[in-house]
Amino acid sequence: MTVTEPSSTDDLGFDPDSLREKYRIERDKRLRADGNEQYVEVSGAFAGYVADPYLDTVIEREALTDEVDVVVIGGGFGGLLTGARLREAGVRDIRMIEKGGDFGGTWYWNRYPGAMCDVESYVYMPLLEELDYVPREKYAHAREILAHSRAIGEHYDLYANACFQTEVTELRWDDDARRWIVRTNRGDAMRARFVAMANGPLHRPKLPGVEGIGDFEGHTFHTSRWDYDYTGGSPDGGLTKLAGKRVGIIGTGATAVQCVPHLGELADELVVFQRTPSSIDVRDNRPTDPAWAASLEPGWHQARMDNFNCLVSGVPQEVDLVDDGWTDIIGKMVTLMRNGSADFTPEGIASMMELADFEKMNEIRARVESIVDDAELAEALKPYYRQFCKRPCFHDDYLPTFNRPNVTLVDTDGKGIDRITAAGIVANGVEYELDCIVFATGFEVGTGYARRAGYEIYGRRAQSLSDYWADGVRTLHGMLSHGFPNCFVISQVQGGFTVSYPHMLAEVANHIAFIIDHALANDIATVEVTPEAEQAWIDEIIAKARARGDFLENCTPGYYNNEGKPGERSDQNSSYGSGAIAFFKIIERWRDEGSFAGLTFGS
Fold first, then answer.
1. Is residue 486 part of a domain?
2. pTM for the structure as a whole
3. Which end of the chain offers a freer environment for a tag, N or C, measured as fewer CB atoms within 10 Å?
4. Whole domain around residue 537: which residue ranges?
5. What is the pLDDT of residue 133?
6. Residue 115 phi, psi dihedral angles, 5° rounding
7. 296 located within any domain
């Protein structure tokens, strides 16, 4: 290997070996034997945590037993983009099914105070040019993203024939009719030639499986179902009903980072329970410059998405169009390459990325020291892991909140809380009496697909998708599985992982629309991947995943690495290991080649 690490730690200003050891110690203290089993499924006694608090009225309708060309399950960006691309391809007979009361997906459910996107809005929000829309700020608040979701639905006429407040309970393939039977909680048994499942990766809330989870006698709710009747206020803050209340929040991830400042502002007491601190970089949000918006030329949106995706994928660009905390680490890598003998082998690039990562995280930790007044508290808020082991956070008010006299951080040194009692929460052996507990505990990621979707899928010969995927996900390009014809999965598993998730969704939507349009235009009854093509793609996924295995294995536990057990999820359930850029090129070349390689068509 050529020189990629300076010859002395003085050149760097830090000792990489010492940091590696510190990261290992912090990871090891957080490893748990139960992995994903440490969480409780929100069903049965906990079903109230997934109820819809935003419904004013229930839409009454008769059960449907009709037939449509395409059913799209999910009204978030995945479903909206799929519906939009199908409309652009000329497909008219589409039915959207969404369990919420409107389009928006995660932005329908997550209306907690301070909710906003941590990826630049000009990159994150889809179909901007198609709708002739430029977001109002560099980082969009949840209200604007929800409104944009609705605007997409209106622009592409996706409200027509849509079923809201409707949950799919079963998908079953009728081989004689060559149709999917879609059953729902509204008594529907509709039929569809094609189904696209856009259930979302962060779809089903989870609760900590600690002793006494159901014993608390005060008020509780999950951040994805914020209870403004209890707190007062709105997504803009102003939680005035918390005056005189003692509030505890479990979790310090991306959601907590955004709502903690609002809780701390108006609660009489706020106790924040932390297992692992988040990486908190500068957000520096600002209004969109009207002159810049007016100067944008056709194609600007795709160019900006591609520029950002390249930078966060480790591919330097001539110009950083976004220039934020996400892309900063690549700038540091470029500086390292210029200051030393650049080694462009995979090992050399990995070494440079690690050093750039160390430098970036040192800045993050120094920022904590500069903001938090109490030195011991500041130390507890410092993250010791690689930046992309957990989703980085960007906020300008979170860390200052811990300087408030009414805010207490309870750092559990990686263990999590001990238990919940009738009166409050016990952590580090101390009971904190509370009036309200807010669960900022995230969403299920590593559990089975059917459990997260909320329904089972039965393909040919009544085989369930859960059984077919029991030993690992099996697809071509992450979208089609053998034995489940005309059924498309929209997911990052065996597909392209992106920081800006809607970018991946847009590419997948293009692919799905291309296949469905071809089938409908040529009166093709069934589209199915061959076993050989499916296995070849699985082999490719496994081979590519191993290059990232060491990184995830050394990460602090979180949903990125299956709570510290990446091996249990298996390489087979990974995204495409060569990255999103390579994956997008693969499926684009597949479409351009035009032979529909790996698929069989039935009449």
1. yes
2. 0.91
3. C
4. 67-204+445-595
5. 98
6. -60, 125
7. no
